[in-house]
Specification:
two-stranded antiparallel ribbon, Udp-n-acetylmuramoylalanyl-d-glutamate--2,6- Diaminopimelate Ligase, Chain: A, domain 1, 5 helices
């Protein structure tokens, strides 16, 4: 089992919402930045890899029931989004790696 906390630690990622639920299980991964596309295709339990760090991304993560948002390439996360993520218990991680590198890491971790 891979949790958000495991991903954060093993990927050496920064956690932007320290009060969220880092023990949530990650069951898959979805990469995408077009919010309407992600909303209709991401699956429950996915770690969502994106560079979209705004309040709308939090809404999409809630609707898709993603395990977490991973901001790749050190993408910024605005203050309004941070507040909304904390209110909705959405864990947001940040990594300097790009989406491909992060997806490969998640795939390896999911395989165990």
């Amino acid at each position: 089992m891979l949790t958000v906390k495991d991903l954060q630690e093993k990927g050496n990622m920064k956690i932007l919402c320290p009060d969220s639920l880092p023990d949530r299980e990650i069951t898959g991964c979805y990469c995408g930045d077009l919010l309407s596309w992600v909303m209709s295709r991401a699956s429950e339990g996915d770690a969502w890899l994106t560079v979209m760090g705004n309040i709308n991304a939090v809404g999409v993560a809630v609707l898709a029931d993603c395990a977490c948002i991973v901001l790749t390439e050190n993408a910024a996360f605005d203050d309004n989004a941070l507040t909304r993520a904390q209110e909705n218990g959405v864990t947001v991680l940040q990594t300097e790696k790009n989406s491909y590198e992060t997806a490969v890491l998640i795939s390896e971790l999911l395989k165990g």
